Amino acid sequence: MDINNEIAKLDWKREPYGLYEPIEYTLAAGGKRVRPHLAMIASQMFDGKDEDVLPAALALEVFHNFTLLHDDVMDKADVRRGRPTVHVKWNDNTAILSGDQMLIEAYKLLSGVSADKLPKVLKLFNQMATEICEGQQYDVDFETQEQVTIEEYLKMIRLKTSVLLANALQIGAYIAGADEQAQEALYQFGIAAGLAFQIQDDILDVWGNPKTFGKVVGGDISCNKKTFVYLTALHRATQSSTALHHVTQLQQWYSQVLQDNTEKIVAVKTIFEQLEVREACEMMVADYTQKALQILATLPQNAATAQLRQLANKLNTRQD
Amino acid sequence: MDINNEIAKLDWKREPYGLYEPIEYTLAAGGKRVRPHLAMIASQMFDGKDEDVLPAALALEVFHNFTLLHDDVMDKADVRRGRPTVHVKWNDNTAILSGDQMLIEAYKLLSGVSADKLPKVLKLFNQMATEICEGQQYDVDFETQEQVTIEEYLKMIRLKTSVLLANALQIGAYIAGADEQAQEALYQFGIAAGLAFQIQDDILDVWGNPKTFGKVVGGDISCNKKTFVYLTALHRATQSSTALHHVTQLQQWYSQVLQDNTEKIVAVKTIFEQLEVREACEMMVADYTQKALQILATLPQNAATAQLRQLANKLNTRQD
């Protein structure tokens, strides 16, 4: 079953057009459709039918796009997937209201889950949606919070990124009839894979190839984002008496908002490299990837499991 | 069962505080809790248990407050129920994200409905939520739309106001085991009562007693809102060849944004009175009230029905 086809089938040619056109625009932007794919793969692992998991898979994708839409308003982001964001193309109010409606549409799609599975799927989905909002709130809080620990950061990205992947896998498995233990294993696979993905994302923001990385390299440094890379650098600098001056240097750079960030990016990268931060972060990605692969080994071995294994193996080598 | 007690029991002392405090603040503002009450009354009409309808009743109240929270951001409203709105007390981003979480909390409460009733309740709730967003979009569209017909206005207030009242009654009745016909009758009662309520609101905005009316009298005139009163005035002026000059006068006043609206309010009120608009609008309120009462007569006659009758009888005499 082709998820993109199924998303294209959703009909948004409805009045009032001002409400539905931004939803159509958002969903037409593409993206990898990772979450519905994960739900499908998890279902296939337990011989579930694609059509049984489809309503939930679509709900997950619409929900994910709702979070991007509202996040872009909050972050004042102008571009998403190479196109103007909704609040730029229309306005803030449209982005708020059409986003609200997208969240409701996610629940409408979810209500297509078979009646016997609906109560648990709704509970899992609600829990996931709550955790994503909590993750977003922590992300906002960290901007003004002076000290963020690595542990706090990991909690934030678990909520903001991993939980949705984990939830997609668990819901797919549950609808296909997998037992509790298998559902939990897939959930934990999603958590580990999501953490590896996000830390690799933080690494690529510093050391990615500008030609293949989808975002501007150094973007997180420019906007003083407390990423896993930055927090690891701070941590390593604090641990070694000979590197303590790096703490002050980093904090100085991260208190500045500059027009031209060229010099800052070079200086910060140099500090990161002196502290061997890249190696430390890559080790974390490898650890989470390893954990994800170990979990997969406890699950039925079939074509679906192989797909997830392939996905996990790409986590620490991906360049975009 | 005391709805205010039940709302106070909801626990919002959760981290991240930045996400949940604005929700607690919003729900603590009070209000008449009309929607959960309606769900309870409808349930009692069919001998339902209060505790069975409680999850849905609370979901309706939390949902209603979510719409107020986001509407206040979109309308840039500074005050709600005598207190600063969330986006004023915190900021726009907080109002967006905590609002999103409130919508999710509504669905979490809804998931407490018994499993056998959940699929239909979720569908009804989703349909209602969608219509409310559509109503809000039409309301926004009307601000810049040159011509709005009375029919279009009625559709907008049906979606924006009536549907939530109607839905509360239908869900309450459904959970209590009422048949389709009774559910539909209660839904239609809610629609008619909601229209009467909103038109009376439009009337009170012009002719209300400043001491008892909760809002600023003349507020809709000041901000050129195309209310039922205004649209009725335009319609009446267009129908009579001797009153055509009032069309131009009204349109001129309604194209102005003024610092001091005293003169404008007096002038517009005078035109309304020359066109006997108040009488025409009050007749519409009486008609919808009558319709609501007629629907009640088709339902079981008990204490709950008496409560709804009392409520309907207040619609056209209320002054606040």
Descriptive labels:
homodimer, about 325 residues, mainly alpha, Farnesyl Diphosphate Synthase, 2 domains, 2 strands, globular
Q: What would your notes on this structure say?
A:
The structure is a homodimer of 320-residue chains. By secondary structure, the first copy, chain A, is mainly α. Chain A folds into 2 domains: 1-178, Farnesyl Diphosphate Synthase, CATH 1.10.600.10; 179-320, Farnesyl Diphosphate Synthase (Orthogonal Bundle), CATH 1.10.600. Chain A contains 15 helices and 2 strands. The first copy, chain A, has helices at residues 3-9, 17-27, 34-45, 50-74, 86-89, 92-110, 118-144, 150-175, 180-207, 219-222, 228-239, 244-253, 262-274, 277-297, 303-315; strands spanning 79-80, 83-84. Chain A has a two-stranded antiparallel sheet with strand order 1-2. In chain A, a hairpin with a 2-residue loop joins strand 1 and strand 2 (83-84). The longest helix of chain A is centred in the middle third of the chain and has 28 residues, at 180-207. The radius of gyration of chain A is 21 Å and the shape is globular. The model of chain A has no long low-confidence stretch (mean pLDDT 96). At the A-B interface, helix 4, helix 6 and helix 7 of A face helix 4, helix 6 and helix 7 of B.
Compressed to H and E, one letter per element, the order of chain A equals HHHHEEHHHHHHHHHHH
Instruction: Please report the two chains with the greatest interface, counting residues with C-beta closer than 8 angstroms to the partner's C-beta.
Output: A-B, 35 and 35 residues
**Beta-strand proportion of chain A:** under 5%
What is the C-level CATH assignment of the largest domain in chain A?
Mainly Alpha
CATH level 4 superfamily of the largest domain in chain A: Farnesyl Diphosphate Synthase
Radius of gyration of chain A: 21 Å
What level of helicity do the residues of chain A show?
over 70%
- The CATH topology label of the largest domain in chain A is Farnesyl Diphosphate Synthase
Sequence of strands across the biggest β-sheet of chain A:
1-2
**Oligomeric state, counting identical vs distinct chains:** homodimer
End-to-end gap of chain A: 26 Å
Whole-number count of domains of chain A: 2
| Average pLDDT, all residues of chain A | 96
Q: Which class do the helix and strand fractions of chain A yield?
A: mainly alpha
Global geometry of chain A: globular
As residue ranges, the low-confidence spans of chain A are none
- Give the strand tally of chain A: 2
Total helices of chain A: the number is: 15
